[in-house]
Amino acid sequence: MIAEFSKHLDLNYTLGLMEKLISFKSNPDLGYRTSGSTAEIAAGDFLHEEMKRIGLKNVHKEAVVVDNFEFKRADISYKMANGITRKFLMSSFQARCLAENEKIKIVYVNKGRDIDYENIDVEGKYVLIDINMVDDWWVNWPITQAKVNKAKGVIVVQIGGYCSWSKDTLGVQDISTTCDLPAFSMTVREAELLKEQLKLQGGEIEAILNADVNVVNNGITNCIIGEIPGKIDEVIYLIGHYDAYFTAFADNSSGIGCIMGICKALVEDGYTPDRTLRICLHGAEEWGIEGTRYDWARGATMLVHKHPEWGDNGFLLVNLDGNLINGTASAVKVRTSYEMVEGIEKLGKNIEGNVYPFGTYSPMWTWTESYMYACLGIPTIESFYEGVNFWPSYHSSSDQKDVNDYSDEVFLSSHILYGTILQKFDKLPVRPLDFTALFDKMLDEVDGKIIADSKLLCEKILKAKETAVVLKKKNDSFSKIDSVAKKYNKKVGRIFSKIVNELFGIDWFEQYNFIHIRNQNNIHYLTSAIESLKAGNIEKAMDEDLRGVDLCWYGYHFDKRVYDILVDQVLGEAAPFTWAKGKVTTIADMWNIGRELQKLRNEGATNYTDVIAKLEKEIETQKNELKEKFAAEVNILEELICMMEDCIED
Fold first, then answer.
1. Of the ranges 194-198, 321-325, 608-612, which one carries the lowest mean pLDDT score?
2. How far is CA 258 from the centre of its chain?
3. Which helix (H) or strand (E) holds 280?
4. What is the pLDDT of residue 237?
5. For the stretch 627-639, what's the b/e string if a residue is b when 16 or more beta carbons lie within 10 angstroms of its beta carbon?
6. DSSP reduced 3-state for 269
7. Region of 373 on the Ramachandran plot (φ > 0 left; ψ -120 to 50 alpha; else beta)
8. Cβ neighbours of residue 240 under 8 Å, at least 6 residues apart?
9. 222-253: string of b/e by CB count within 10 Å (b at 16+)?
């Protein structure tokens, strides 16, 4: 069956479908099919019809509420010192700006920190800002700083990290804040010329702006759903997102193409799965809601919010989110949970036609739509590579076939690999979950040196592992798909859901880990900072140690108004519903301490007694929170032990 499936794969079909998908554009020069835009809606309509054409069943569109983002154009013209007029195109972040030959003034404010605005009048002007969103900070910080300094708009130059493939690369990311300040991006090459002209013309340039970009709250987009019906009511999900920045060959036209190519081959092969294969193509993944740190994966968030019942019968999810085409990788490394590692590696290895070694990364992460489904209790697999630096072309005008080290062989291999994994999972009576791996990892992640309260937690983890060993034996005993296996799968799915939603959480960097890890890490970094200060090394304390404590690093560079606005968008009462709602509930508020350290460093001071006392006080706060987290984890583990025992005894 699997060998016959591969004979029906047609790379020409996939590439042709991708070419058609890429043709849907809001901006004729740059592309963009973004949240609820005309281009995204049209692309969804095309995929809906194509699903029906290739033979999928129960094909339909599900409308979900998102904030719409449509970018049609943006350019600036200005006169150089030699009298020649220079014009350049810009990409746009999520914003509202309708300008027709609007006269603007542009000034350069370095990295856009609060210190960069000293002695510069920016009110009513556009500010030009250099940024590296990998090494320094996300764009929401300098954008918000520009806003509180009364700038009229922001022009970003991505000087490193993301979107740095070449000096001619344009790039954009999600804005992770409100959209009321126009925010554009220009190339490094054009920025170098503009900065030179700013110097020649006294630090300020008059220019003409044309722009048509808009955000409309509470709009809609469509998730496109189709199925290959199975024999039982369990479901395997194959998902991807069809929205895009620019033309997005890799992220995620390639994922959509691969999904459709796999489905077409399965249908042509006459494949009838045991479990229904449900394909969900989401809109509004790259961005979809205004005024929050967590503005991505909106389409999937709202879809699963509409369908909590999917968790009851969901067996597995495979998310093809790019990373399918690169001929220079060293291995395929799919992302999954600790519980799934051993089982997935056994199923994924030695698949004929896969050109790369196969392995896994753990734990899951929260940058894609997989997490939303995992919260329902559906274990997930997410496409990824090892040995590829895709950040320079990610979300940029350089995400094109001829730039991304594209390989026909690798792309076809991705079809074979994920299509085969789907079929292998379909034949399993139960998921290959091993909770002992989870509890081993949890035990490793408890630092007993920090507080004495860890002993009870460690004992409870060991008890949970003992129970998981017995559960694993039962898991391995199933040999056929029947009513007993189905009942067991439902119960184990609820265990998985409880682990994802209660035992794990996220920190201020969106890292997914056990709920005690954030406080434990904060204590580690705070302690290290004190040691550095006692040794007279304030640079290490500030730039290495305290950088790991929640948002302390950002407090060095952006003023209290900015800090409070962006914290409030997570913790405030008005924070909107998102996939991360309630996952982060406290912060180590280090802004004042950070500013005190800055003052001491600037003054060349060597006495850090007062600030050390404040750091010690914060450690006590973090220890109290850690005790609460340990106690919560003990209760959660007790409940998980009961749930596992129920599965064993049933």
1. 321-325
2. 20
3. strand 275-282
4. 98
5. bebbeebbebbee
6. coil
7. alpha
8. 252, 255, 256, 258, 259, 281, 282, 319, 320, 321
9. bbbbbbbebebebbbbbbbbbbbbbbbbbbbb
Q: Does the pLDDT at position 390 exceed 90?
A: no
Radius of gyration of the chain (CA): 26
Q: Does residue 24 surpass a pLDDT of 70?
A: yes
**Least confident segment among 215-219, 444-448, 530-534:** 444-448
Q: At 57, give phi and psi (nearest 5°).
A: -110, 165
> Which residues, including other chains, have CB under 8 Å from residue 79's CB and lie 6 or more apart?
85, 86, 206
Compute φ and ψ for 232, nearest 5 degrees. Answer: -125, 175
CA dist list (Å): 264 to 157, 234, 267 = 42, 21, 5
With contact defined as beta carbons under 8 Å apart, do 178 and 290 qualify?
A: yes
Vertex 586 angle, CA 584 and 592, to 5°: 130
363 upstream amide cis, omega within 30 of 0: yes
Q: What is the pLDDT of residue 451?
A: 79
**Degrees (nearest 5) of the Cα angle 378, 286, 68?**
110
For the cut 90, the answer to whether the pLDDT of residue 4 exceeds it is: no
Query: How far apart are the C-alpha atoms of 263 and 240, rounded to whole Å?
Result: 13
Can you give the pLDDT at residue 54? 98
Q: Do 310 and 235 meet the contact criterion of CB atoms below 8 Å apart? A: yes
Give the closest residue to 150 by CA, choosing from 191, 119, 122.
122
DSSP β-bridge partners for residue 75: 89, 210
Helices (H), ranges, 158-224: 188-200
Give the whole-angstrom CA distance, residue 497 versus residue 639: 13
Distance between CA atoms of residues 340 and 230, nearest Å? 23
Looking at residue 190, its amino acid is E
Asked if 262 and 239 count as a contact pair (C-beta separation under 8 A), the reply is no
User: Which is it for the CA torsion 314, 442, 323, 412, positive or negative?
Assistant: negative
Q: Are 518 and 397 in contact (CB under 8 A)?
A: no
Q: Which tokens hold the place of 619?
A: 């450690």
Q: Which two tokens stand for residue 250?
A: 């890799």
Q: What number of other Cβ atoms are within 10 A of residue 318's Cβ?
A: 23
Count other Cβ atoms within 10 Å, centred on residue 649.
7
Q: Structure tokens of 295?
A: 């503005």
Most confident range, picked from 119-128, 319-328, 443-452: 119-128
| Residue given tokens 């056929």 in the structure block | 480
> What is the rounded CA–CA span in Å between residue 579 and residue 216?
20
DSSP code, position 114: G
- Give the residue among 557, 286, 269, 514 at the shortest CA–CA distance from 416: 269
110: helix, strand or coil: coil
Rounded to the nearest integer, the mean pLDDT of the chain is 96
Helix pair 11-22, 408-426: axis angle to 10 deg: 100
Tokens representing 328? 């220079």
| The one-letter amino acid at 329 | A
Among 525, 506, 526, CA closest to 516: 506
Contact 219, 264 (CB under 8 A): no
SS3 363: coil
Give the DSSP per-residue string, 421-455: HHHHHHT-SS----HHHHHHHHHHT--TTT-TTHH
The pLDDT value recorded for residue 2 is: 67
